[in-house]
Amino acid sequence: MELVQQHPDISAYLAVGEAVDHDHPLVGEVSTRLSDVHPDAYAYAEAAFAYVRDTIPHSQDSGDLRVTWRASDVLVQGTGICYAKSVAYAALLRARAIPAALCYQRLAEDDGTNPVIHGLVAVLLPGEREWARQDVRGNKPGVDARFSLREERLAWTVRPELGEVDYPLLYAEPHPAVLGALKAAPDRPYLWRTLPAEL
User: 96 with 162: CB under 8 angstroms?
Assistant: First the structure.
């Protein structure tokens, strides 16, 4: 699948935004800590991926009821669903001048019911000509997402026969339907009932 930039100017994917707030001191602090150990862009991107995937639990897995939507809030509170964790990873990448975009999949149950939008990050490392999607949702039994620039190692591969979709558009900030659901939710159970089913 060819990924398509919503904004032709790459600077949009480096910009500070309402959700991707990489100008926040904590984002800078985590970024500096990671880059001190991993100064190379590739090594940094992989380390930041592992940091968000492994040290910030997915709130459904951990049972955390809090809803986060800004990158800084995800890092401060140490929790988030896939959308929020993706925003945090995008912010850590942009903090080191690595273009990062938000993108999405439409997933469903094994019988095709209960469709829901799943959040990913696309990264464009120096010297690369193509964006590479990454999934920082967090691994669990049956889910083994890995950082990879060549062969995708996402949590899930879409099943078109069940109506699942890989959306090709790359966003600088969360899709409005995603951001709206996050901002309106007082807690995760409410959010789970109001997650967008399509974009």
Answer: no
Mean pLDDT of 98-107: 98
Contact residues for 188 (Cβ-Cβ < 8 A; gap 6+): 59, 60, 64, 65, 66, 67, 81
Extended strands (E) in the chain: 4-5, 100-107, 116-123, 132-134, 165-166, 169-170
Asked whether the beta carbons of 80 and 58 are under 8 A apart, the reply is yes
Q: How many CB atoms lie within 10 A of CB 100?
A: 28
DSSP H helices, 23-151, are: 25-37, 41-55, 59-62, 71-77, 82-94
Contact 6, 172 (CB under 8 A): yes
Say if pTM beats, i.e. exceeds, 0.90: yes
Instruction: Give dist(CA 100, CA 15) in Å, integer.
Output: 9
Mean local confidence (pLDDT), 67-78: 98
